[in-house]
Amino acid sequence: MPPPAPDRGGAAQPLLETRGLVKHFPIRGGLFGRQMGEVRAVDGVSLSVRKGETLGIVGESGCGKSTTARLLMRLLDPGAGEMIFDGDAVGRDDLGGGISLKDYRRQVQMVFQDSYASLNPRLPIEDTIAFAPEVHGVPAAEARERARELLAAVGLAPAQFARRYPHELSGGQRQRVNIARALALRPRLVILDEPVSALDKSVEAQVLNLLVDLKESFGLTYVFISHDLNVVQYISDRVLVMYLGQVAEEGPVDEIYARPGHPYTRALLASRPSMDPSQRRTDPPLTGDPPNPVNPPSGCRFRTRCPFAEAICAEIPPVAATLSPGHTAACHMALPGSGHSQAGGIAA
Amino acid sequence: MSAALKPTPEAPLIRLRDLHVKFESRDRTVNAVNGVDLDLAAGEVLCILGESGSGKSVTLRALMKLLPKTAKVTGEIKVGGRDVQAMNEGQLADFRGGDVAMIFQEPMTALDPVFTIGRQIAETVQRHEGASRSADDARALELLELVQIPSAKRRLSAYPHELSGGLRQRAMIAVALACRPKLLLADEPTTALDATVQIQVLLLLRSLQEQLGMGVVFVTHDLGVAGEIADRVAVMYAGKVVEEGPVGALMAGPLHPYAKGLLGATVHAGMRGKRLTTIPGAPPMLDKVPTGCAFAPRCAEVIEGCQDGVPPLRQIVPGRQARCIRVAPGEGQPHI
Question: Within a domain: residue B50?
Fold first, then answer.
């Protein structure tokens, strides 16, 4: 197995940084397929993934977390914004000093939620795993050898499983194959988009343990996207909370879960069902559903469901305010002097 | 309301005895349910907890005779003292929606896309209670208000695709409650919903259940959901109930090794940095009826004798049963 690409920027340089990432999808309709509007799926997301950490991204459906994953993998081209991988601008190699998309994709790999749809049904799993190395110029026999090593690393005995087809495996086994495939190019960053959401609880725990082990043994950095707050808390070092295409709050996992700054994060945490029937809730933390990202509310996007919304929230979109080192929340209440009557009230 | 459903102390709302469901096709046979006994008292909420393939949804569908004709169903299925298996089509049409209603995971496929929400509720009322059109419409409005749909009057003329996921789920609940059923069957109704919406729908279902005094059978794979809504929990594995008991006691101290494994494998707060306990392997294929304990191949506490015959569901303490030869009666006494 070859080593991963060498570290270029040093330990302090984030592995991946994005600035103002935007992705709008046009809605076409009418007689001539004119553009009727757009879904503002991701609307100015800036994040940074540090070397060796797991960044968790949480949010509800329609908050743009999966679109963000696809932008980070460059399966989608951002409408605006830039991405910097270990100090190099992604896809800007033509300008000199950047990293080409081909090199970027060798160092960044992805695991999807649907373990069946993301495997080729007509290839034995060993060939699926060996495919990418072959495309990148590894001789076939060596790629095959690497595939078998990886199958062993994800807990599938090569002698027993290598020649099987995806339909001959259970959901948990298929997800292990997907993880092995993602590791075949020795990436430095793996983007995991809801990797355990379709699995049963007992299998989910197996896959989470495997992900923790592989991170250690392969020296990986993860971006872990999930709607499950408990799983994100378990696996992440830092957490990003998204709401309607924007970042609501970001910070170290213990800070976010113990001292959430944004009213949305607080409501999201309070919505988790308790495992203890003696501590049942009586009132839901929020009412209604998240609004449609086609027509997001003006100002703060959470204001339509926020119990603390005031006039200022409809006028000015809040900027991220620092609550404690590395912990920011995009809320007028977190920003002293913002004009909200409780401004500064939730600063740490 | 159709007359027949008057549960008495002697006749519980649901009485299931030795339910077996087997699907046979040319390619394979699946023994989905292998001997389930369940009782439900009026006004009680029972959660059937299990992973995919455990037979929980098949059991639920058998209660309403909703399984396809290819399914071989045997055993006693009584709802409100009446034998569901013996009902003919006409009796079933009265029974479904009148005495018993069901709500599903996917409201988009359960609601009819070409009729308004109001029409679909009124149609149910008309079919079962035969009231006038205007009375039906008034009842539809009342129901939308009951399930806390904002601006209910306007929403009556909305089509399913015009509603958000949470409102659609509320509309489906309104259709189900249209004829004040005594029994509500819920098949993972909150699984597809977002966290902040799921808790709203769970709290709504709980308050409606208390308000209307319905019995509820709630199928879920999510322990947290069971913790929020259940009075009693039945844990299913490989087509059998392996443990049953009051929700608090079961969550605090499961008896069966599978229930213990399931609780240990469920990620919750405070587990950061610790290794998750897992259940090795995968559930059995069920092409043959298990002859011993179906969980034995994956069980950490397996001993000789586990495979010699199916362990009986034994009472451990009053109200708590487990299907494991290693759990001795008297274990699991309240220690909280």
Answer: no
Q: CA of A57, closest CA in chain B: separation in Å?
A: 15
- Confidence label for B109 from pLDDT (cuts 50, 70 and 90): confident
Put simply, the answer to whether B225 touches A273 (Cβ < 8 Å) is yes
* Residues contacting residue B214 through CB under 8 Å, at least 6 positions apart: B43, B181, B182, B183, B184, B208
The ipTM (two decimal places) reads: 0.84
Distance CA A87, CA A75 (A): 21
Total domains in chain B come to 1
Residue A346: pLDDT band (50, 70, 90) is low
Least confident segment among A33-42, A83-92, B6-15, B54-63: B6-15
Can you list the positions of beta strands (E) in chain B? 14-24, 29-40, 45-49, 71-79, 82-83, 100-103, 183-187, 215-220, 232-237, 240-246, 314-317, 320-322
Out of 3.30.2170.10, 3.30.565.10, 3.30.365.10, 3.40.50.300, the CATH code matching A16-236 is: 3.40.50.300
- B-chain CB neighbours of A230 within 8 Å are 266-269
Contact residues, A window 205-234, toward B, CB-based 8 Å cutoff: 205-206, 208-209, 212, 227-231, 233-234
8 Å CB contact of A208 and B165: no
Tell me the pTM: 0.89
- The verdict on residue B160 lying in a domain is yes
Residue A200 with chain B: CB contacts under 8 Å:
51-52, 221
Query: DSSP string covering B26-55, please?
Result: SS-EEEEEEEEEEEE-TT-EEEEE--TTSS
Predicted pLDDT of residue B332: 58
